[in-house]
Amino acid sequence: MNWTVVQRILGLLLMLFSLTMLPPVLFSLYYQDNSWLPFVEGFGITFAAGFLCWLPVNRVRKELRLRDGFLVVAAFWTVLGTAGAAPLYFADALSLTVTDAVFESMSGLTTTGATVLTGLDELPVSILYYRQQLQWLGGMGIIVLAVAVLPMLGVGGMQLYRAETPGPVKDTKLTPRITETAKALWYVYLAFTITCMIGYRIAGMGWFDALCHAFSTVAIGGFSTHDASIAYFDSATVDFVAVIFMFIAGINFSLHFFAWRYVSIKHYLQDQEFRAYAFILMVLSALVIGSLFAYRGFDDPFQTFRHGLFQAVSIGTTTGFTTDNFAAWPAAVPVLLIFASFIGGSAGSTAGGIKVIRWLLVYKQGVREIVRLVHPSAEIPVKLGSKAVPSRVVEAVWGFFSVYIIVFGVMLIAMMATGLDQVTAFSAVAASLNNLGPGLGDVASGFMTLSDPAKWIAVAGMLLGRLEIFTLLVLITPTFWRT
User: Fold this and answer.
1) What does the alpha-carbon distance between residue 375 and residue 19 come to, in Å, rounded to a whole number?
2) pLDDT score of 319
3) What mean pLDDT is predicted for residues 111-122?
4) Per-residue pLDDT tens for 455-482?
5) CA 329, CA 146: separation in Å to the nearest integer?
6) What is the pTM of this model?
7) What is the pLDDT of residue 172?
């Protein structure tokens, strides 16, 4: 393990991250909300910590190995969540404990969207902006941004990219150089953010709300500047803009890149994961809308369709925006929506969940085993399109599912041990591990009523979900530390 290399990179990344605490200062001065000081304090502490970490090893120029990349990613997201909590902890307008500040920061950076705050409509503008910015930075992964910047500082990035980028096909690069790949992803991400902001503005939002909600929509985060979330605007146009961009953000960003480069949508139609993703959301939307019609009747069919479609796409993509109290919806609909978050979006998107491509591979593997019962000697490959999937990938997917179930079970028992009922504990773990945000039971409107131990369990779940479990769990294996 190259400890000095890891220390140097962490120091550099912390100093870079500290700069993100300065834009809220500008918002505070512009809107005169008198809340700029906590961000200056947070910037000073984070920059100083990064500088002190970097200074003793600033001349080290060793090669970054894969194991070092895993350690940097895991350590940085943990440290990042703590550092990001500094302005929230120092803000007099919030009066948060350390636990609540770290929870809110980690929820933002992991794009979970769970919150311990109330009274958002009365909070200073700078704090509201900062929460949304945390999600936007975490959406594509701040490590990917660092991959585009660190080569200029003499630090290789491929190991960080492989450790950070989700999905079983993470080694596929859009461009020959990893730096250009990271830049390409961010160009697409930024373009969607700007387009989404303009869409919200045309739909009737003010510029500030449009910017903030574009941040959380494209990041599939779910934070809002209002307690009522998207329902605050009571606008069908706003809802449909959100649905469009939530759907887009749940697609593998490499497909967006190819569509932009070749000015063609054929890559979407040829991609099996995209077709499965679209099909799942259509079926989920139809089931939710149909159930609402069966329960509410046809007194106001447009509103029923609007709310059903919005919540199906919002929860299905793990965004977490709400236009209605879906936890109070009839029969099995709330549970169906929570289960949908286990699927999530596509690999290579900003969505959470297990990812569509893993479910697709598990389905194809299941079909293959059924066929093998009839033809035991047949060699039947698992295919995506016309290409056979390597057995190593299929094994990795099964391994991920197994570990996911074990982790979920352990966290569920731990949550219940803190005194939560089964429904609350189950949905709290699902909301954290799937980076969803809203849940059922006592966490339907937020996590503020949970005890500190339960909140720390949720924080661990957010990290595990954001880094897709293995990136963190690999650190506790003896093999990882063996020289």
Assistant:
1) 61
2) 94
3) 92
4) 999 999 999 988 888 777 888 888 777 7
5) 43
6) 0.91
7) 54
Reported confidence tier of residue 265, pLDDT bands at 50, 70, 90: confident
